[in-house]
Amino acid sequence: MMRSMFSGITGLKIFQMDMDTIGNNIANVNTVGFKASRMTFQTTLLQTLKAASAPQNNVGGTNPMQIGLGSKIASIDKMMSQGSFQNTGKKTDLAIQGDGFFILSDGVGRYYTRAGNFDLDTNGTLIQPSTGFKVQGWSAKVDPSSGRRYVDTNEPIGDIVISAGMSMAASSTSNMKLGGNLKADVGPQNFVMKVRDTTTGTDYTVRFFFSKTSNDINTRQSGDPFSTNQSYTWEADWTGDGTADATGYIVFNEFGRVVSSGITSGGSGDTIDLPGDADIVIPSTGEPRFYEADDTSNFYVAEFTSPRYVTSVQVYDTLGRAYNLYLEFIRLGKYGSFDNAWVWRAYTDTGETIEYVNASGSTEFAPGQPYIGGLLEFDTAGKLSAMWGVYDSGGTMGVDTTNELKTIQFDASHNGDGEVRITIDFTSMTQYASPHSAAVTYQNGNAEGTLQSFAINENGEIIGTFSNGLTDILGKIALSVFNNPAGLEEVGNSLYVQSPNSGIPQIGAAGTGGRGTIIPGVLEMSNVDLAEEFTRMIIAQRGFQANARVITTSDTILGELVNIVRR
How far apart (Å, rounded) are the C-alpha atoms in residues 356 and 410? Predict the structure, then answer.
């Protein structure tokens, strides 16, 4: 009879501890990063009244006869499931989506937590406000060559400091990249017009074609491919055999108006001589109107789109001084052995002298023949195929097809700096019959800047925004995973420490090695399920009541036993 009372007592004790666990879960229902616990029971020692026996002879076997002596705690398990998220909008509030723990340090040991309600202290150190423990990760280092910061996750973790006085050093532009399109159909456009020989009644279809030749550049543009007035050679074909029946030139100003023209074959003055009395007059000034001499109502105004396109970018010297650099492109089209050629040059609004440097490091094709720009050659598919140098040979333009040219330089010593040398990557440029879109997509120079704000991304990278408009990495938050996270030992303040059964911490960057990602501006809430806890509370209450009933019933029976003597 005493066994039942002691069994009931063990039941009272474990259900009381079960209520303690439930009460702790409910008390932490709103605790950031809290993980609920559950208690499981197991039987305690049993008294064996009769051992089991095996079947023998004609008698079957018998089972053991045992009386249990109550229950005890089997385990108190941590439920490490993901909690729900609460949006806070605070940039130093962080939650982990997936596995892993933030790492904190008090300067002696390391602690692990899912509670990401962090803040900065007076030194700019990222900390847990309730304890002052410092969040661990990797601080960025400055690359001495580029001035940019980088994070080496192979190094040991340490404190993360985000100082309000952090600065970004000025850096000279040394590389630049262009992308986008250069419009293929620019300059005067080919056209067709019909004229009649009134003496015979014959109609002629005259096709006009425009192109660039060395005479256009070297004679009529004085060897300057970037001249304000652009000259073109025209050919007229009315026999339809694909050869020129008349040739000449026409010079346009920057607004598409004709400034001069001439006929070199197939006519005289400003008139092309067709068979019979059909003549076509070539415009000499003003609107590019080609018209029939005998019928001025029969005309065609040549369509002209400026062959010039300019894009600009700010580049920097080593002191961070900005220069407005302009890149000018002019389409030559079919020129010499090139089918789709463009010339380009660079200039600044402050008048620095730009020099062009070929792949051999020279600024001249030959002594006394300096480069005046570059030439981009596109293939018939609109892709860039070559980059050559354009040089001045005594008032005649030449193209150096032996040395690639894509580097410019200028002297900035008058501003306290030295030489600025920039290599330009043109490889992403195209030439299609689409609108101009060519622009500088990247340049690696910058002015000095001071940290204005920062944000943390899902990889744990702390990205700073500086007053010069650039961003740079300031550090990276580390996460740790364990083989058995439920084996960690709680030490209060929502912190855990490594235990003999948790496994060693596996430290690395968020989103790698099975570690979760970081969600900024969000906190992970407790994973306590109140509905489940209330149900467990009812079960614990009924279990406690039942065990208490065992004790009172056993006591009543013992009272009856005592009363036997009285009777």
Answer: 9
Q: Phi and psi at residue 104, in whole multiples of 5°?
A: -120, 155
Element (H, E) at 558: helix 530-566
Domain ranges for the chain:
2-51+65-80+527-566, 85-169+451-524, 189-303, 308-443
Percentage of the chain lying above the pLDDT 90 cut: 80
Does the pLDDT of residue 188 top 90, yes or no?
yes
Given the DSSP bridges, would you call strands 134-139 and 471-481 parallel, antiparallel or unpaired? antiparallel
Q: How far apart are CA 359 and CA 20, in angstroms?
A: 79
| pLDDT at 164 exceeding the cut of 90 | no
Contact yes or no for 365/371 (Cβ under 8 A): yes
Whole-angstrom distance, CA of residue 485 vs CA of residue 505: 10
User: What is the Cα–Cα distance from 368 to 409, expressed in whole angstroms?
Assistant: 18
Q: Are 206 and 280 in contact (CB under 8 A)?
A: yes
Residue 566 banded pLDDT, cuts 50, 70, 90: low
Is 412 within 8 Å of 317 (Cβ atoms)?
Answer: yes
pTM (2 d.p.): 0.74
Asked if residues 408 and 346 have their Cβ atoms less than 8 Å apart, the reply is yes
The pLDDT value recorded for residue 182 is 97
Q: What is the Cα–Cα distance from 74 to 42, expressed in whole angstroms?
A: 5
CB 390 within 8 A of CB 343: yes
CB 158 within 8 A of CB 491: no
Helices and strands, number each (H, E), in the chain: 3, 46
Dump pLDDT digits (tens) for 374-394: 999 999 999 999 999 999 998
Nearest to 85 by CA among 93, 95, 77: 95
Q: Which residue has the tokens 């509370």?
A: 537
pLDDT, one tens digit per residue, over 72-120 is 999 999 999 999 999 999 999 999 999 999 999 999 999 999 999 999 9
CA-wise closest residue to 302 among 423, 225, 208? 208
Amino acid present at 174: S
Residue 64, Cβ density class (10 Å: 0-12 exposed, 13-18 middle, ≥19 buried): exposed
What is the secondary structure of 298-331 as a DSSP string?
EEEE--EE-SEEEEEEEEE-TT--EEEEEEEEEE
What's the DSSP call for residue 497?
E
pLDDT tens across 493-538, in order? 999 999 999 999 999 999 999 999 999 999 999 999 999 999 999 9
Nearest to 126 by CA among 115, 137, 142, 140: 137
* 3-state secondary structure at position 2: helix
Q: How many residues does the chain have?
A: 567
Please give the torsion angle defined by the CA atoms of residues 42, 48, 51 and 52, in that order, rounded to the nearest 10 degrees: -30
Both tokens assigned to 147: 């001035």
